[in-house]
Write a structure and sequence with these properties.
This protein is mostly helical and 124 residues long. It has three helices and no strands. The chain has one domain (2-122). Helix content is 90%, strand content 0%.
Amino acid sequence: MYKNYEDKLNTILSNAKGEKVEKIELALIDDLENSLESLEGITKDLKGDAQIFKSLRNRVQNDSAEGEQRVDQIQKYLQDLQRQAKELGFNAQSIPAYKRAGRVINDFRSLTQGRAKLGGLLSL
């Protein structure tokens, strides 16, 4: 008599265990799918961000190179201006554009530091 109950109890427990396992597995699958969807979204965002970054990196490289050329050109102008001002007997520092040139070059240099400061960023 107890054997019959024991068999029934074992059947119920094995079925219950199977149901619980299936429920847990379904929950894990849902969690996995949610995490995968989230990661796919992040990956899509990163691809877009990487494209934007590449575009900005190229712009920074081009602007930096062009800025270096302008600095060289401005420094030549300043040397010529200083020489001419000396010949005429006045101080080139009294010319507003001369003063402004130093400030603008310093601003540019503070951003680029001769490209060294941007080197790490540009190599990404």
